[in-house]
Amino acid sequence: STKVFNLPPERLVVSVFEDDDEAFALWRDKIGVNPLRIKRMGADDNFWVSGPTGPCGPCSEIYYDFHPELGNEHIDLEDDTRFIEFYNLVFMQYNRDVDGNLTPLANKNIDTGMGLERMAKILQDVPNNYETDLIFPIVQTAAEIAGIDYANSDEKTKTSLKVIGDHIRAIVHMNADGIRASNVGRGYILRRLLRRVVRHGRSIGISDHFTTKVAETAIVLSESAYPNVRSKADSIKAELEREETQFLKTLERGEKLLADLITDVNAKGVTQINGADAFKLYGTYGFPLELTQEIAEEQGLTVDVEGYDRAKEEDIKNTPDTHGGIDLTVQGSLDKLAGTIQVTDFIGYHQHHSTAEVVALLLAGEVRDEADAGMNVQIVLDKSPFYAESGGQIGDRGYLSGDNLLVRIDDVKKESDFFVHFGSIERGSLRVGDTITAQIDTACRRRAQANHTATHLLQSALKQLVDPEISQAGSLVSFDRLRFDFNSPRPLTPDEVQQVEELVNTWITEAHSAEIEVMPIAQAKAKGAVAMFGEKYGDDVRVIDFPGVSMELCGGIHVNNTAEIGAFKIISEAGVAAGVRRIEAVAGNAILDYLNVRDKVVKELSDRFKAKPEEILDRISTMQTELKANQKQLETIKGELAIAKSEQLLTQAQTIGEFKIIIAELGDVDANALQTAAERLLNKLGEGAIVLASIPEPDKVSLVAAFSKGVNAKGLQAGKFIGNIAKICGGGGG
What residue ranges carry the coiled-coil annotation (predicted)? Predict the structure, then answer.
């Protein structure tokens, strides 16, 4: 380390097994390492085993210190921002039998190993393994294809590039070793890796095929040491091209549908995606569960895997032997209609009502010519004043009417280039070819307009007051509230939240007029217009400009003047994923709804506490103080009770060989009291072992083990023992 790789001795720290005095002395006396830079560590870190039985022994590890200037007083080798282990020396001196007994080996040896990429990281002085010359050229190729400067990218982009580099390298070697993509076993691992590569490529702006280009760099890097990757290069690239093409066909549709699912889940205030919906994504659109889980996790959500499995079993059970059946889902029928329906003419920017012709009608997923009162229907019109959900803004509500006809429209979604109006027929009958009057709910439209423009003002205020590098990571504009997700490495301070809110309200009262213009996208970008997250733009784009305040590319509905918003109020600011924050707010008339709910809560609290609104906080603080005092007193009593119970256990000790053992359950005492009881018992018991358990609350188990030094000398450690027991209970420990 110091003579071949020329690492400065003062940057090295070593660890030894906690009982290995010989290794400690050798490092200190023979090598000359400062004793403060020799750390004793437990079996989890410094005792190597080949398995439950077989050769094993203590080990000593060498760490590199990236910050020696921090001194020797508080060295914590678990701090991976300061230290990295790069060398390991295992003193292979024992054999462990089935009972856990250790016996010295006839032939002892030192098994040593060094981390290649870790040493490269140290020598090349780069922040992580991905930026060494062993892998960074692959990452750099992906960055060049995406038109990205890696060094100046945000952490999310860098992570995507690292995933691409790491996974492509793995795929190249797997494929060279004969593994082919499939839906089972190791083939499915390869397919999953490749799908992650493609998705991360799209997330950083790569829309075309790119995996074969990145793979070529991985092959060039590896071929001198692994000649088979070059000899198999053609088949590797053919596999990548085939899988990438196949996956791209399903990815765009699946991502859109999953985004809709996530929006629905968030709107309901739950944190789990329904298993049946996740299976529909896979069964109908080929979107794999693992990818659904990964995207959901990025949004702070989980997937109901058990529900997914049930839906999968039900699908297998109900699948007929023949495959000539017609897809009766709404989506399937819309796909079939897409080739025959023309683009819906959206006139809603300037008109709130118009006459229109019914060009398609669906009922329960089936294309119909006619539908009657009481039926839920999906309707396609030749033109429409209804805004279809897009860019984070939900679809309009309203009515379709005609002679003795009334259809309530609850939502409008965009499918391909036509709008689908979801509603129910309240009166009369509706037929394809009918001419009807389409009328949006103007009150709902005004609310959505206010919230949408407020979202633009919010982003501008965040950039101005918090960080100009803030960018949108998602949004929701509904009739009663708005939600804005943005990239930020830290939460906003309360003062920043207040300043942002005040600036938005200042812009509202200043009455800035909107200037809306359609222009070439290059011109819009040159003017400094901000793009909306997740949107795809054509050659010409719509620019919403409130001069001096905000300018964004947006196809949504907005107020003509900021004064129409009325007011803006931030409800919450919180984290939703690593590096992503979320602000929820209300604007316009929705503020009255919000204040009415808050006012009702305050009145109810005042009545319950018999206090004026301004006295409620003091009253709650007093109650919290009293509650904490009572809880502390209760914990003390529980601890005393546990100790009293434990004293009686001494008479129940069993003798096994030269040791005494107590195993008992102490009711509902908490973990701290359980530990105290175990320690007191072991002190009184002498050489032996204590294992105690309790159920402090329903569905929760606490376990404690305490072993004497004599038991330790037999090769048994309480930490490992209790960890294995805890796993049986679905937990962990040490």
Answer: 620-647
